[in-house]
Amino acid sequence: MHAVEMKGIVKRFADLVASDHVDFNLEKGEIHALLGENGAGKTTLMRILYGLYTADEGQIIINEKPVVIHSPKDAIKNGIGMVTQHFTLVPTLTVAENMVLGETAGITLNLPALEKKVAEASEKFGIPVKPQALIKHLSVGERQRVEILKALYHDANVLILDEPTAVLVPQEVDMLFEALTRLQKSGLSVIFISHHLNEVMQICQKVTVLRDGKLAGTVNVADTNLKELANMMVGRENFGVKRQGQRERGNLELKIENICASDKKGLPALKDVSLDVHQGEILGLAGVSGNGQTELSAVLCGMHKITSGKIFAGDVDLSHATTSDVCAAGVGRIPEDRHANMVGELSVAENLILDQMNNFVKNGIMDYAKIQKNAEELIKSFNIKASAGDRVRTLSGGNMQKVMLARTLSQNPRIVIASQPTRGLDVGATDYVRTVLLEQRDRGAAVLLLSEDLEEIMALSDRIAVIYGGRIMGILPAHEATAEKLGLMMAGSAA
Amino acid sequence: MDSVLFIVGLIAAMLRVATPLIYGTLGELFSERAGVLNLGIEGTMFLGAFTGFAVAATTGSLWLGLLGAILAGILAGLLMSLLSVRLGVNQHVAGLGITLLATGISLFAFRVIFGESKVPPSIESFPMLQILPDTNPLAPITNQYLLTFIGIALIPLVWWIISKTRFGLQIRAVGENPEAADAAGLNVYAIRTRALAIGGALMAVGGAFLTLAQLGSFTFGIVAGRGWVCIALIIFANWHAVNVLWGALIFGGVQALQLRLQTQGIKLPYELFLSLPYVVTIIALTIAGRNASAPSALLKAYRRE
Amino acid sequence: MKKFTIERAPAPVWMRTLLPIIAIPVTFLITSIIILLDGANPFTAYYNFLIAPLASKSSAIEVLVKSTPLLLTGAAVAFAFKGGYWNIGAEGQLYAGAISAAFVGTILVDVPPIIGIPAMIIGGFVGGLIWALPSAILKVKLGVDEVVTTLLMNSIVLNVTSFLLNGPWRNPVSMWPQSPEIQPGTMFPQLLPRTRLHFGIILAVLVILITWFVINRTSFGLKMRAIGLSKEGARFAGIKVNKTMLTVALISGGIAGLAGAGEVAGIHFHLIDAISDGLGYSGIIIATLGGLNPFGVGLAALFIGLIDTGAQTVSRVMGVPVYLGDVVQSTLLLVTLSLFVLQNYRIRRVK
Prior knowledge:
heterotrimer; A: alpha/beta; Rossmann fold; 2 domains; six-stranded mixed sheet; C: mainly alpha; two-stranded antiparallel sheet; globular
């Protein structure tokens, strides 16, 4: 019997068809993977089921009855719970307050009674939480448990988990899988969104694969293998771009010495981080999300202050540099969040010169002819699908990233800081970005690549460092770095 | 003896001056805790002052006047909600627009109803409560308007509503993380709208206090920037209802002191003294602003993708 | 079969320019209600509002006179908003400019206009700039919200003005609360005989042209636009956000101060208490209506000047309270703001 049937779901965003006549069926009591690359439409489909988006076309059937889901409230009523990637918890409220947020009965809150109910639910489902704790004091793993318990507390019998393991260390992943298996036995159906094949094989019974917004197929895990799933996912055998051979590395270019920094909340995020990057090499920094990569990247880009330590680009001391000092020192930056670090409402041409305005100014007046020419050249050489006058906001993620690459790399930086450079990009754009990074290395630039995608790190890096809890756990030459070794280090054990 | 009289008088005046500030700030508290900075406050207080006066003057009932003011305040809150919550217009400009509109409508309607008479019309205002006999030296402090007592009593009530009721929980949730509230099945728009309506009503009562109780007449300069002081008081109070009392009393005290000194015949440039509350506010902002805990979603319109 | 859907995407450019124009009839439709409540005929009212002022040469010139300070406060606010600085204090900066100009105008005894007029311009600019300074410094150094501080600075300058006029500057002869008359050499020349149209409008048009050029053609302009659109993005690109924003805030204050200088040097020749009465707040309306574009601001200022003049005509001819002008202005602002939301949507045909 189907717990959920989705038929012919279509969802458009402007010119993009995020979900193109997708069918999806969930049996009662199964763990069903929704597999696909970034941007394949997994999250979109599930946000439709949970009422966060409304489908343009299609039908949803729950327990054999057609339903209309306009908001999460409707979804919850139909027994659907969702744990999104960005947790939907209010940080200043307690666990118990967050649990009962959607309830409307009664005027006053009897907090002690509610906390007791939450504690009972926690016991019943075997998911430990502290009802009185404020969310802002909890770790990411603990917050995820609160989210799951919240869904179950509201009598969810279908639980959607959107990339739940992306933020967890392996031990927490084990705990999560154990809990899911137990809940499955008591009748819960789970939709497990992921792009990690191994996890899918490990815990799911069925897999639905999406590619470019379209259904690529649904198979039983027992009848398939990693290779077949990978093929369904990307539509070809393997990724194209890979580092070729060992290069003679040059002089020391970027030197990071024992730097410490705090995160936005003032908690220590980087602890005594030291890294050396030489000319003509890519140093990959691997790690699970949220272990200090964001802060390290921000520090190196001149966007975040360090509390101690030193940073040198060649002979230039950048320890307390502003963004303009960093630009002037020849450091090219591909930021983690390209949306926040470009000016979306300005044109492609204007964004392309924003960090090198002085080259396009005569007596304080902009040389718009030169700016236009520069834009046209870069659009051509970086294969950007946009015209110079388009506002950057209207570009696709891949083209936006190309604008960022073009702006940064056209200045021939001697150091390149690339943070999550392929996050959210499609296969073609990903390959392109990787190729360009390798070109920079071959040109002799010192490249620091921060990525949560281990495959990417292993494909591109000459040496690989691992960060965990704000500390560097070790640095391995590429030929010694196996996925297993790196995985252990990413979970916090030293090399 | 003189100094006792002086202090008693000072405290009495302080409570009177603080009353409209308490209402206005509590009103703004509802809006801001729900995530909306309502710069319509100055105009909403003015509208409340006018509507209260006009209704009272035409019907002869002060209570109907107060009710009229409340309704007008709710309308102003709903308009702010339409603009900033439903349509997602920039909150600064929408709020200022409402202040300008509410002021303009009040002035227009005042001229239509009362004409351009030389003598400003007046009404018999609310009497002060006689809690202690007038002979008691402390009588000036205890014998205040009912609205003053209600205002002070509202402070714990608002604290209770925001921290202990379901509605308060919803307000805090939509003000801190509307995405989370939405995902939990709450209607973010409806909750913000309700908070703005309640806030508007409170602001309007603050304005109506001036015409219906304190002065008994309506003048064009009646609100005179009190709304802006409330905006600052919220920051001073760090968005907590209980601190609103201290903030309002301190500012009321400064104002009252300056009035006292003036009536004592002490030669001072009183116009400059009138600026003191604003200067103090800016200083308070500078000090409090650094570790302020504003609701995270303040100024952010919520829109589902 | 054709089907249409509405989706979130930037509307076409022609739509964006059209919106403020659509806003005008919508506004008049709404404000008809209160005209009807006053028992007047909306059509006659709007005739007196919009057409009558332009029908005679003298009242058409009066529209330009009214628009003069509005062009400047509108440009001041638009300049600040464009650079991401929410200057709500144009009203106060105008007063400060007026005070400063009145001071300059009284001390420059027997100067020729060639010295007196530039001195008044500088005086007004510096006055407005000084009044904008505290809020701007607090914003860039300590992150104090400029909306609140610029608002409060407005209230303070009103008290300062009233102190000056009732104290040190009170006219010793007439005892009127107004400053001594400024020196003839510091008065702005009349442009047309027997009208109030003065040199200030040339100054205002120049300011409009200069601000347009700065915003759209200089590297400073690109920096401030980038900051106004995304502080993070601008900072990432190496733009000195605080320094740029401070400069923007001070120039904005200075421009608002020019409006005050113009009123003193071109119209009143004294400092008086009611020198502005909301011109600075109208500047916010004008900046918004003009889409923060100086040329748009120019048109919007003329329109608001027309409404201000028209409100007096309506009041004189029909006895409708002059505050109708305020109601129309603010309604127009709110309607335009609401319509601007449509900018983010476009209608699309589904095949």
